[in-house]
Amino acid sequence: MQEVSSILITGGAGFIGSNLALELQERYPKAKILILDDFSSANFKNLKKFNGEVLACDVSTDEVFFKIDDFQPELIFHLASITDTTVTDQELMMRRNVDGFKNILEIAAENESIVVYASSASVYGNVKEHVPLKEEREKSPENVYAFSKYIMDNIAKDFSEKTGLKIVGVRYFNVYGPGEAHKGKFASMIYQLYLQMRKNKRPRLFKWGEQKRDFVYVRDAVDATILAKEAPETTVYNIGSGEARSFNEIVALLNKYLGKDLEPDYFDCPYDFYQEFTQADMSKIKKELGFVPKYNLEKGIKEYVEILEGKIPHPVGGLK
């Protein structure tokens, strides 16, 4: 493994960011790691095992340049953004997500850093056909969050062409796993259903629970994110499991691993816009970087439940 001396992680106290920080700490024990986070959607408890420096910072403001000061990152993992898809304030979403990204790219240009940033599968929009989604397919963002990520992808391509920097987007599908509890109602559907069933409540699903999603365990998402820095050039990769699985299957697996037998409580979907199906085509990252997910839904939910139930520790930090 090639040694890395300095790593900047924005949004490093959040769900994926904290898992990433702890894994990088394990893999690069000699590296200096700096985390910037405004703690608007984060929890310090996620970083109790982190040994580096953590600074409060909104990267969409000029304070980011002062907070970085003389830190010269060789690698930048940019995960800071508003991730609440229900936010309708378009100016706020664009300022925080897009302006923040542009600030980070300026820092990268000054230091000739490799940048890996969080994109999102939401850029694909409400796909009608049930087929794996390839990175190059037409984009159709349905809300301002998805639009902000779509514009970030465009900016990354243009900035790379101007500067020669390598800027790699990781297009996350439905990530779940330890470290998401602080997100409350915005945590994964798997965690929401676990909480209901843990209290012996019937799990609530939109009729009839056959909606399918590509659920990717956070440890796979982190592995792919770190590997993305090895991309041969500026590009974007899907980060998923490569499988579309139904909510009914999640309930069945949670019943199995919790030792319960709870029937779903089906109700009408109240939303005009609702994705019925997502599935990542993972062929590009497999071909270019050799990445293959280690966790299917069965293995991921089993490990997650064991961590939540206190039966095993989180492999890199004891997160719940």
TrEMBL record:
<dbReference type="InterPro" id="IPR011912">
    <property type="entry name" value="Heptose_epim"/>
</dbReference>
<dbReference type="InterPro" id="IPR001509">
    <property type="entry name" value="Epimerase_deHydtase"/>
</dbReference>
<feature type="domain" description="NAD-dependent epimerase/dehydratase">
    <location>
        <begin position="7"/>
        <end position="240"/>
    </location>
</feature>
<dbReference type="GO" id="GO:0050661">
    <property type="term" value="F:NADP binding"/>
</dbReference>
<protein>
    <submittedName>
        <fullName>ADP-L-glycero-D-manno-heptose 6-epimerase</fullName>
    </submittedName>
</protein>
<keyword id="KW-0521">NADP</keyword>
<dbReference type="GO" id="GO:0008712">
    <property type="term" value="F:ADP-glyceromanno-heptose 6-epimerase activity"/>
</dbReference>
<dbReference type="GO" id="GO:0005975">
    <property type="term" value="P:carbohydrate metabolic process"/>
</dbReference>
<dbReference type="InterPro" id="IPR036291">
    <property type="entry name" value="NAD(P)-bd_dom_sf"/>
</dbReference>
<dbReference type="Pfam" id="PF01370">
    <property type="entry name" value="Epimerase"/>
</dbReference>
<keyword id="KW-0413">Isomerase</keyword>
<keyword id="KW-0119">Carbohydrate metabolism</keyword>
